[in-house]
Amino acid sequence: MRSTIWKSIEEVLRRSAWQVVPVYLGASWAILEATSLFSERFGLPVLVFDLTLGLLAVGLATLVALILLAKRRAGARWDEGAPAAGLGTEGAPDATGPGPASAARSAWRMAGTIFVSVMALWGLLLTVWLLALAGPSEDEIWAETEALPRLSVLIADTRWEEAYQLAGEIEVRVETVALDTLWGFFTDTVMIRTDLAGATVHRRPYGSDPADAQLLGSTPLQVDRFPRSPSVLRFEAPGHRPIEIAGLPMEFGDSIRIAPTGIPDERFDPVPGPLPDWAGGPEFAFRYVSPNLSHAPTVLLGDYALGRREVTNVEFRRFVDAGGYERPELWTEPIRDGGRVLSFDEAMSRFVDRTGRPGPSTWEISDFPEGADSLPVGGVSWYEAMAFARFSDAALPTIYHWFRGSTAWRSAWILPLSNMDGDGPRPVASAGAMSQYGHQDMAGNVREWVYNASGSERFILGGGWEDPSYMFTVANSAPALDRSPSNGIRLAEFWGDTTHLAQARMPISPPSRDFFAETPVSDEVFEAFRRMYAYDPRPLAPEAEAADTTDLWIRERVVIDAGYGGERLPVYLFRPREAEGPLQTVVYFPGSGATWLASIDDHTMAHVEFLLKGGRAVAFPVLQSTFEREDGFVYRRQDPSTTYREHVVQWVKEVRRTIDYLETRDDVDADRLAYFGYSWGGMLAPITLAVEPRFRAAVVLVGGLSALPTQPEVDPFNFVTRVALPVLMLNGEYDMIHPVEEAARPMFELLATPPDDKRLFVSPVGHIVMYPDMIGETLGWLDRYLGRPIP
Q: Which of 607, 709, 623 has the alpha carbon at shortest distance from 292?
């Protein structure tokens, strides 16, 4: 028996060895392809493929080993002078041994035996695996039925950070080929460099706890899976203080500079003055950040530093305790009240706290309230801010340096974490509202004085806790003597190239336009303009998508035809919970903050709630470029571009289509509709009211005509004289966006409304009308022209 086996092996060597091996390899390839398809179809782990490959490799090794062993044995026989197996002494076939055909068959039988044995072993092991584990594991089922479908939804919704976190969890818990194809949809490759090689880099999601940061490595560093969501990178190096930078992957492509400890002062974070090329650099231009300063000249800034935090009460107390209000050398600017220059003593008599002692207007007995150590100082004038800066061997930032450091173009990240539309200040740097270069709370908490003048006033930026969120990007100003509770301080250091500092400190006047000296377009031209806002009476095709309730309202989300381009228009209809019957309804046109927020749930409901409490319904259309309909349009208040013109036309059509829908509802009194336009909606009110005749009355909150250039078809000035319905205008005395005399009063005077049916109410505030005046005036106006709602 043993001799027969060796004879077969020797025959394989002579006649079939190099025929058997290729066939074995071909069959193995077919088996591997089938295994791959089988595994993918039934969700088997990668282990199954690896096991198959391993067994086939063992079978191949066995076959080759036998061939080599047979060759060695055959060689030994020939060395001893024995005839080869199966041959006679004359070289003829041995009658008792196999011939060539028989030997070939023996070789193929041996290869087949090995192959069948390998497959039998593979089947046995796979069966044992399936029986032992009883199908896929819990992690595999979770990945297949929950995690991967959820990941696809997150990718489709561009929720990159959530997708990144979920993908990381999937990768840890289970091996799946499907995940490998998805990483590229929500991550990028980023090369991170620093001017000092070897700096360690930690990453955390923007707005998260610093303790959540994860180590990426040391610079220079290539990160192949960097999430496309906003991130904060922390850089640390021996002998250098840590710095944090926020941004998107593209913003980490430039080399990061790490400032040596103490240079600049560790209270400050450095800012590179020149803008990168992708941001339109190197000069700074307001058209990218502040809608009402697009007329200001561009300036090339040198490197500088801004205070990481707003000045706190504790820091300002050092100034007070050091006799800051008694040292004339700290007060070098002439202190003016209108056109009169005050003496030092007269001025200091005004810079007192609630008890008449030196200090901010919010203090008592030259000290801040107990427990307010880490709150930002508030209630200071521009002159006090300047004196404190000089006392601190620092300076106030210019309006250019402030906006450069604020990275206001990232308001979509910053504003949700900021203290705006709030009840009071909060401890500095307590909520992670960080600009690109590490500066905290530049939006909200307190307004921050800057150096530049605007006429007789000084700019004060960022908005305070009681201001609406869009004030972050608006260049507001106030009298230099103003000591409102939310007026605060942030310092700057100019330690780089100061060549252009003097230019950056120049006064900036608001754009001017004498509306009373201009003439609106003729009736014929206006009629052509009006036709631009018309649309075909297509079916609304309403689809009710959602409804929710609170203690105050029932809110429905309905999507209708927008009246142009096949667009669909979501409309939120708010109704008081307890009201019945056809309701008077107010169509609400929001402020420009809606263009920066991701959802209506992020928008203040203050202007909706008081109307609901008054017994009326509110229709809130999701206009193009707002909330979930964000389309990349950058709102700059008013501009001459064709894109802006097209958007204005679309917005007005959407308001009109909203009324079309309201007329189909039995619970809406379509004969008693009112318009409420806030800021942005107030500025565009003349256009909407001139082309839409179905409103019975209108309220314009902090609206006015804009002096910025635009195309005549969308210039509210050409429409305001065609508005004749009752209009209430509510404006702020110190409003920088729509100044009373330059913007609000011209709109009011030019309205074609009879004098008894229009009213201009002015409050002693900025770009916001304080409660309760706004509520009382608005409800009284609607009661007058729509009638009191039925209880």
A: 709
